[in-house]
Amino acid sequence: MIKMKSIYSFSKYRLMHNRRIEGLTILLMVAALSIASCKKFVDVHAPITSLTGQNVFTNDATAASVLTGIYGLIGSGSVYTGANGISLRSGLSADELTLASGTFFGNNQQLYQNNLSAQIQLSPSYWEDYYQKLLTVNSALEGLNASKALTNAVKNQLLGEAYFLRGFFHFYLVNFYGEVPLSLTSDWRKNAVASRTAKNQVLQHVIEDLKQAQDLLSDKYVKSDALTFYKDGSEERIRPTKWAAAAILARAYLYTGDWANAETQATLVINNNSLYSLNTLAKAFNKNNPEAIWQIQYVNNDRNTEGYHFILSGLPNFLRPTYLSSFLLGAFESGDKRRGEWVGGYSSGSDTFYFPKKYKAQSNPNNSEYLMVLRIAEQYLIRAEARAQQNNLTGAIDDLDKIRQRATLPLVAVTNPAISKSALLDAILHERQVELFTEWGHRWFDLKRTGKIDAVMGTVLPVKRPGFTWNTNWQLYPLLQGDINLNPNLAPNNPGY
Questions:
Q1: Residue from 193, 138, 201, 127 nearest 165 by CA
Q2: In sequence order, which residues have a C-beta less than 8 Å from that of residue 90 and are 6 or more positions away?
Q3: What's the Cα-to-Cα distance from 341 to each of 283, 333, 406, 410, rounded to whole Å?
Q4: How far apart are CA 111 and CA 474, in angstroms?
Q5: Which whole-number Å values give the CA distances from 473 to 61, 114, 177, 236, 476, in the listed order?
Q6: Phi and psi for 490 in degrees, rounded to 5?
Q7: Domains in the chain, start-ordered, CATH in brackets?
Q8: String of b and e for 259-273 (b: at least 16 CB within 10 Å)?
Q9: In this predicted model, what pLDDT tens digit does every residue of 106-133 receive, in sequence order?
Q10: Structure confidence at residue 299 (pLDDT)
Q11: Residue ranges of the chain with pLDDT lower than 70?
Q12: Per-residue burial over 40-59, b = 16 or more CB atoms within 10 Å of its CB, e = otherwise
C-alpha cells in the first residue's frame, strides 16, 4: 500500500506526475482493495488486472469500485474507528473519556492532556489521511466527469457520492484544524503550494459540495453497482443518499449559523418517516435499523470496531485504555435510560470502570454491527437548536422532547414550558452531550462552535493534567511543522504551536 506523509510533499507528487496520471495509483489501489476486501459492498468481481488508466471510468463496475474502496478504507480503521478513531480521540481531547493510569504514552497521552505538538505527528494523522482521501475523490470526480461510457444513473450516483465525500472530509478537517487548504483537484502542482483557506469559506464550500451531492444522489439506497435499488425494508444503508447529504447539510448550516436552512434540511430527513425513525435505545446502533441514515461496514472487523476498543471485559489496558469520565457520567439526569442502556461497567474490587456500550459486540463476526455515521436523533437536535435560534421555542421544545421521551425523561413542554431561549439552548447542548457522546467528535466540536470550550475545559484540563491550566489555543490541532517546511504557504501554524 502506498504511504504518503503529506499531500503537500513535492517529491511524492512529482513521482505521481512522472507516472503521468496524478492520483491514478491511489484510485487503482482503492478499487483493488474494494474488490478484494469489501465483499458485501462489491458483488461484481472484475479482475484487478483490468483496472488501468484507460478503462477505470469506462466500466460501471470498476467506476463504482473506486468509491466503494473509499468506504472500505473508512471501515478498515485508520482515523475513523477503533483505537485511532475520531470518537475515541475526540473523546480524549474533550471531557468524555478518561485515560487509565499506566497507559500514558504516545498519541493517547497527548490527546488526553491537550498537549499536542507541531513536531510530533499523530499517527495515523487526520491531516494526512483526509488529504489522501481527497486526492482519490478529486481524481474520481475528474474521471467521472470526463467519462462518456458510464450508465447515466451510475455516473450521477457516483458523482454525488464523490461530492458528498469531498464535503465530508473537508468538514472534519476544518473542525480539527481551523483554516485548511481546500483540495479541489488532483493536480500535484496546485496541491503542493496550496494556502490555507478561512474556516467560513471552507464550510461554504462544504455546503456547495453537499448541495451538488444532494442533486445527484438517489433518494433510495443503491447496491454495490450504484444502480440497483434494494427492496423496501431490506436496505443496506452503506452508500450515501440524498438524505445523507441533507443530514450533513443540516449540520454544516448549523455550524455556519444559517438557522433557517439547518431547519429546512433536518426537516427533509425527519419527514421521510418511511425510512427514518427513532428506534428503541437497545437497537439504535444495529446495522440497517430505521435510525441509521448512513453507516459504514467494518473491514477486518475483529479489531477495528467501536465495540472492540470501548467495551471493557477486564481492567483498562494497552488495547482498551479509556473509560467514561466523571464529567460525562455526571451529566446524565436521574432516570435517563441511556445511562443504563448505553453505558456499561466493569468492576474490580471497589472500583468500577464505565464504558460506552452503544455498540454491543466487542467482537463483530460477519459484520453484525456497522459503524454509525449519521442518525436521525442528531437531526432532531439540529432542528431543535435551529428553531430555538429563530425564536420558535415551541417547535424547539417539541424536537428536544422527542429525544427526552425516548430516554424516559420529563418533557420540557410539561416541566418548563415557559423556558427562556438561552436556557433552552443550554438544554439542547446538554441533550447533545448525553445523546451523542463518543460519536464522531460531536462533543469536542460542539464546545468549540458554541463558545463553551474555555469554560468547560478550564475545569476539565486541571483534572486531566494536574498543575496546568487550559489554553484556548489548544482547541485546534496543530499542523505538522514538517508539512509547513515543505509548503511555506501553510504558515503560520495554528496559534500556540
A1: 138
A2: 96, 440, 441, 443, 444, 445
A3: 10, 14, 12, 18
A4: 10
A5: 47, 10, 11, 42, 6
A6: -80, -15
A7: 10-79+126-240 (1.25.40.890)
A8: bebbbbbbbbbbebe
A9: 899 999 999 999 998 888 899 999 999 9
A10: 87
A11: 1-54, 301
A12: ebbebebeeeebeeeebbeb
Bridge-based pairing state of the strands 351-356 and 97-99: unpaired
Cβ proximity of 138 and 23 under 8 Å:
yes
On whether the CB atoms of residues 359 and 307 are closer than 8 A, the answer is yes
User: For residue 369, what pLDDT is reported?
Assistant: 92
Q: Is residue 1 a contact partner of residue 29, using CB atoms and an 8 Å limit?
A: yes
Strand-pair partners of 264: none
How far does the chain reach from its first CA to its final CA, in angstroms? 32
Q: Cell numbers 468481481 label which residue?
A: 45
- Under 8 Å CB-to-CB from 118, ≥6 apart: which residues? 478, 479, 480, 481, 484, 493, 497
Grid coordinates in use for 41?
Answer: 459492498
Quick check: 138 and 183 in contact, CB under 8 A? yes
- Rounded Cα distance between 478 and 493, Å, is 7
| 375 contacts 313 by C-beta, under 8 angstroms | no
**Helix/strand/coil (H/E/C) assignment for every residue in the chain:** CCCCCCCCCHHHHHHHHHCCCCCHHHHHHHHHHHHHHCCCCCCCCCCHHHCCCCCCCCCHHHHHHHHHHHHHHHHCCCCCCHHHCHHHHHHHHCCCEEECCCCCCHHHHHHHCCCCCCCCCCCCCHHHHHHHHHHHHHHHHHHHHHCCCCCHHHHHHHHHHHHHHHHHHHHHHHHHHCCECCCCCCCHHHHCCCCCECHHHHHHHHHHHHHHHHHHCCCCCECCCCCCECCCCCCCCCCCCHHHHHHHHHHHHHHHCCHHHHHHHHHHHHCCCCCCCCCCHHHCCCCCCCCEEEEECCCCCCCCCHHHHHCCCCCCCCCCCEEECHHHHCCCCCCCHHHHHCEEEEEECCEEEEEECCCCCCCCHHHCCCEEEEEHHHHHHHHHHHHHHCCCHHHHHHHHHHHHHHCCCCCHHHHCCCCCHHHHHHHHHHHHHHHCCCCCCHHHHHHHHCCCHHHHHHHHHHHHCCCCCCCHHHHCCCCCHHHHHHCHHHCCCCCCC
**pLDDT at res. 16:** 38
* Residue 107 grid cell: 498519541
In the block, residue with C-alpha cell 459486540: 361
Return the ∠ at Cα 206 (arms to 471 and 297), rounded to 5°.
90
**Which pLDDT value is given to residue 97?**
98
Give residue 370's identity as a one-letter amino acid code.
Y
Torsion, Cα of 276, 295, 260, 435 (10° steps): 80
Please give the distance of CA 178 from its chain centroid, rounded to a whole number.
16
